[in-house]
């Protein structure tokens, strides 16, 4: 069995952008309380739901497992954030 997995290697940029956006919304929760927290939490939740829907659709289209795709998306986001050429 090959260690190359085209699903993991070829994560679409749109999935990476959605995941990054959701993480940015999550980070904005820090230090908030009360109504501000609740409002930001709803923004983060909506962003996460968009990520999950996109992952599910991509997984179905590629016949990959959604968990595998989700992990690959998270890994791709971490990789692009660590790449100094990306910033």
Topology (elements, then pairings):
Elements: H1 6-9, H2 13-27, H3 34-62, H4 66-82
Helix pairs in contact: 2-3, 2-4, 3-4
What does this protein look like?
InterPro entries: ESAT-6-like_sf (IPR036689). The protein is mainly α and 87 residues long. It is built from four helices and no strands. It has a domain at 24-82. It has helices at residues 6-9, 13-27, 34-62, 66-82. The model is unreliable at 83-87 (pLDDT under 50).
Distinctive features:
87 residues, mainly alpha, 4 helices, elongated, disordered C terminus
Please provide a brief summary of the model.
With 87 residues, this protein is mainly α.
Average of per-residue pLDDT values: 87
Please count the helical segments.
4
Q: In percent, how much strand structure appears in the residues? A: under 5%
Sum up the overall morphology in one term: elongated
One letter per element, helices H and strands E, the order comes to: HHHH
Major β-sheet annotation: none
User: Structural class given helices, strands, pairing?
Assistant: mainly alpha
Low-confidence stretches: 83-87
Secondary structure: helix percent: over 70%
Please give the radius of gyration in angstroms: 15 Å
**Termini, distance in Å?**
36 Å
Q: How many strand elements?
A: 0
């Amino acid at each position: 069995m090959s260690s190359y997995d085209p699903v993991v290697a070829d994560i679409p940029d749109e999935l990476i952008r959605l995941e990054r956006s959701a993480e940015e919304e999550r980070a904005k929760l820090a230090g908030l309380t009360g109504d501000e927290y609740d409002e930001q939490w709803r923004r983060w939740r909506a962003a996460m739901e968009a990520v999950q829907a996109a992952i599910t659709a991509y997984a179905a289209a590629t016949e990959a497992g959604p968990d595998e795709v989700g992990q690959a998306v998270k890994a791709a986001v971490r990789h692009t954030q660590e790449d100094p050429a990306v910033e």
